[in-house]
């Protein structure tokens, strides 16, 4: 499976741009949950200087976030994939300094929403 890292990075940068504009309009100083999650992703793929293979980190993040493969939680493989996806998102959120609260859950749902809408339209 070929992972389109540029597409995922582009989406992370779009989140940052949208949130920066919104924060400027609203006069906010603290970054939103979406910004911290996007920054966490970008941080995860830039960790090659710390002994982490960025291609592996991105591929893992992409596969579980986009639900490539079996994600039926009624099967053991699907349930394992669902657990790994949540672990990846939680690790990225932790790296971005985001507590697991309702704002984090909303940001995670926002990231997953696009894929679910695509699947429903197929």
- The amount of beta strand, in percent, is under 5%
The number of helices is 5
How many domain regions? 1
- Give the helix level as a range of percent: over 70%
Q: How many whole angstroms does the radius of gyration measure?
A: 15 Å
Gross morphology is: elongated
How are helices and strands ordered from N to C?
Answer: HHHHH
**Distance between termini?**
20 Å
> Which segments are poorly predicted (pLDDT under 50) over 5 or more consecutive residues?
114-122
Structural class: mainly alpha
Could you characterize the architecture of this molecule?
The chain has 122 residues and is an all-alpha fold. The chain has one domain (5-121). The protein is built from five helices and no strands. Helix 1 (5-26) runs antiparallel to helix 2 (33-45) and helix 2 packs across helix 4. The protein is elongated, with a radius of gyration of 15 Å.
Q: How are the SSEs placed, and which strands pair?
A:
Blueprint: H1 5-26, H2 33-45, H3 54-65, H4 76-95, H5 102-121
Helix pairs in contact: 1-2, 2-4, 3-4
Short description:
By secondary structure, this protein is mostly helical.
Provide keyphrases for this structure:
single chain; 122 residues; mainly alpha; 5 helices; 71% helix; 0% strand; elongated; disordered C terminus
